[in-house]
Amino acid sequence: MPPSTHEGSAVHPSRTPEPPEPPGGILAQLRADHARIHAMFHAFAMLDDEDDAGREALVDDLCDELALHAMLEEELFYPALRGVVEDSLLDDAALEHDSAHELIVQLETLFPGDDFFNATVAVLAEEVAHHLAREENLLFPALARTGADQVALGLRLRERRAQLVADLASPPPVIDGAEPRGLLRGQPGGPRERRSRPR
Known about the structure:
By secondary structure, the protein is an all-alpha fold. It has one domain (26-166). It has helices spanning 26-46, 52-81, 87-108, 117-146, 150-169. The N and C termini lie far apart (56 Å). Residues 1-24, 168-199 are annotated as: Disordered.
């Protein structure tokens, strides 16, 4: 049924429409990231419970994608909004990133078949869906209204993404056998490295 236009309805004809998102701009790229993340969670839900290798690989890719996306937002998107939206909105968004990171760290030690693997992925999916919706409904329109150069920000985001992806693809550093490994893993915002479980 089409939305009603009578007084008190959800339609506000006097509201200024949001400026369009230029192709290649920062908002278009972040929106594409969000769509990819949603698709990955959906793909996980569709996998057969017996496909342990597929489920593990997809969760690893999903967690890497989330970590990369969060780093890009924290370095480029959120700073562009400082002074434009209430600090509390950005603080809440950063806390949501921290919460997702905690779940990602938990997933580093879990494997398909473990008691809390599916539940942890489900909680991560719920928290991420809530976070992405808040960004798209509150933060994306706020940046669009500022008149910021989305294309220039998008170029910086593409360059930084390429740098981070290259860092993830590079071989891990040589580790001194006397150095505790725990100091090198689990750093907030850093690339994940799943611990191998002996089979």
